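Sample entry was shown:
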Amino acid sequence: MREKAEKQGNHYNCPVEATMEVIGGKWKVIIIHHLLDGTKRFSELRRLIPQVTQRMLTSQLRELESDGAVHREVYPQVPPKVEYSLTKLGKTLEPVLLVMHDWGNNFIERS
């Protein structure tokens, strides 16, 4: 479990560090969790995650897009329509999130 991971010349101490670079941050995992159900508009994500500010949601979506986990589709209409969906890479995070979901349920039940 102590393998080294490498990404574009950047070295990580472990593969978990590389994973956390993509999904780390308070809202990224929650965004991905909601996108597992399918494509969402920005306003839908805001409703699903009422605690996140518009600025933070935009920032987290941009980072996920930059890392290749989220696809942003802009439709040329007035008003502009923007939809977010998981990429093929983003969908590979599903098993990770399902384990986190199960762990969270067990933790909540213990409380």
Notes: Residues 1-6 have pLDDT under 50 and may be disordered. The longest strand covers residues 70-75. The two ends are 31 Å apart (CA to CA). The chain has one domain: 6-110.
